[in-house]
Amino acid sequence: MPIASYQMHSHHSGRDRPTQPYPAILQGRRYGAYFGIEKCLPSERTRPGIKEILKSYHPACIIPEGGANELAMRGVAEITVELEDTLGDAPDYIVLSAGTGCTAAGLLLSDTLKSKVIVIPALKSNHLYPEILSMSKHKNKDLLFVNTDYHFGGYAKWNENLVKFITEFESSTAIPLDQVYNGKAMYGLCDLISRKYFEDGARIVYLHTGGLQGKAGMEYRNTKINS
Predict the structure, then answer these.
(1) What pTM was computed for the model?
(2) CA dihedral in degrees (134, 138, 139, 143; nearest 10)?
């Protein structure tokens, strides 16, 4: 049940115009959003056409690709307080997926963070650790751990083992996972637990960051391939 409803106008800055609406666009429309399509890269926001769009909706909040910005990190920082209020104390570990690393950086920016933050990137790269520290201004840096063992070949790549894990996990827990972000991170968490990475009695919170549009996107992709 939505807490609040907003009249939203959104311009998609993709490289290609879709021949038919993607699942994400269809869901946005169900929530009352209007989507325009304007081809541009982030570096091209000063183009006359883009400037006109921004002027039409002034003041506008520009959400960059991946959603990483200062407001997002400030909002995420509040999660640590919510966890302590809910659990009665801080967990020993917070485990989460990462694309841009913004969510992890937001956790590190919290003044009340006591938990170790274990980040499992969705992409094959070693750049996230320094990038997260840069975004968080190196605050709470001793609590950050990045595990790059569960990318499954790279961003938006997966194999049958991951798909099987997601199917079995969803069947036993009724918690949906996507194959791009949270499926990989949850796979990593379960594998770390099986390998006795965590001490006995450790309290672990898995921070489910969504990513379920990717799940709908995969179903959309498979439909297109099979049609």
Answers:
(1) 0.80
(2) 110
**222: buried, middle or exposed (CB in 10 Å: 19+, 13-18, 0-12)?**
exposed
- Orientation of helix 70-77 relative to helix 79-87, angle to 10°: 10
Q: Is 49 helix (H, G, I), strand (E, B) or coil?
A: helix
Q: What is the pLDDT of residues 81-91, one digit of tens each?
A: 999 999 999 99
pLDDT digits (tens, 9 = 90+) for 102-130: 999 999 999 999 999 999 999 999 999 99
Residues 6+ apart with CB under 8 A from 181: 97, 99, 122, 209, 210, 211, 214
N-term to C-term CA, the chain: 34
CA distances in angstroms from 133 to 102, 126, 176, listed in the order given: 10, 13, 30
